[in-house]
Give the backbone structure.
Amino acid sequence: MKKTLTAIVASLAIGCGINPALYDFNDKEEYKVFKNVTEQVEYRKEPGEENHWQKPEETRKIGFGDCEDLTLLLIDEWYKEGIKGKFVIGYCTIKDTSLHCWAELPINDITYIVDPSFDVFMPRQRLPKHLYLKLIEVER
């Protein structure tokens, strides 16, 4: 699923005339922290209807979590670096009926959608409007 949504977002971006390669964030601390989380912690959807929210320390220790666990860990790691991101709950797409969590991050007056579950780090305005539909946001 992770690679599938990542490929869909990249494909949609390219279809909208956006070249993701133009957004090179390798030197930005926000992106370094994001990549560290996505490379060290695995996304795993929780089975069944159970939804246990893990503390960032627990997610870091066991090395996996679902969308809210990875996003809470990312927000916590950013906070340690003095970076203020927002925790967001909403839907990935209009057709999706299950809730999803991701982060939003302002960089130079541009809001970025940052989804550690699906390895997405893109400007909000560069994504089609039917992706990442926000219901609730919380700033730490």
Observations:
- The first helix runs from residue 2 to 15.
